[in-house]
Design goal:
The chain is an alpha+beta fold and 185 residues long. It contains four helices and ten strands, in the order βαββββαβαβαβββ. The strands form two sheets. Strands 1, 4, 5, 6, 7, 8, 9 and 10 form an eight-stranded mixed beta sheet that branches. A hairpin with a 2-residue loop joins strand 9 and strand 10.
Length: 185
């Protein structure tokens, strides 16, 4: 059984905000080997601000099993500030109805089946992605833009979610990534 909760840092229970950042450290730094800042086993960056919205899933034991970060494109965000070359020469979006989806992961570390699947397991990822799109819509998003590994494209297609590439993938630290539009409606 999966429980999903939403909110900004101020809206999340402090214990679960810390668990979220610890989970991100475990997924992105320990598991995927990304070169990210981490202090005391908590992964966060300059985009984890008061206006940042989070979607977090947890299992019946209270362990975090997935996360997503939603950022308004009217403020600095990952794609616009760190990966603009993924936009294939286009200007980074900056509109109240366009939000960025980043730090998306769905791995249940308590399940043996998930540990070999990379950044996400398909069942958990599907549910988390649907909840993220739903929450983004409640925040006023009509479209999401994301920097993602190629595997997310297969997941979106499999789920029947209307999405398309902004430009061709590029390789960063040995991993192909791309920018992708996701329609919320």
């Amino acid at each position: 059984m999966m429980e999903v909760f939403y909110g900004t840092q101020a809206e999340l229970v402090p214990e679960y905000y810390a668990k979220l950042l610890s989970y991100r450290h475990q997924v992105f730094i320990e598991r995927l080997g990304w070169k990210l800042d981490s202090i005391d086993g908590l992964e966060r960056d300059q985009f984890d601000r008061p206006d940042t919205a989070y979607v977090v899933s947890r299992d019946e034991t209270g362990s975090v099993t997935g996360c997503a970060r939603l950022l308004p494109t009217t403020q600095p965000y990952l794609l616009g500030d760190v990966f603009p070359k993924l936009l294939n020469g286009q200007v980074p979006p900056a509109a109240p109805d366009v939000w960025e989806l980043s730090r998306f992961a769905a791995m249940d570390f308590n399940s043996r089946a998930t540990t070999a699947l990379g950044q996400f397991s398909s069942t958990l990822a599907a549910e988390l992605l649907r909840n993220s799109i739903k929450y983004a819509s409640k925040l006023g998003a009509k479209r999401l833009i994301t920097v993602s590994p190629i595997g997310v494209e297969r997941l979106l297609r499999k789920l029947g979610i209307h999405a398309h590439r902004v430009g061709p993938p590029i390789v960063v630290n040995g991993h192909p990534i791309f920018a992708c539009w996701i329609e919320c409606a």
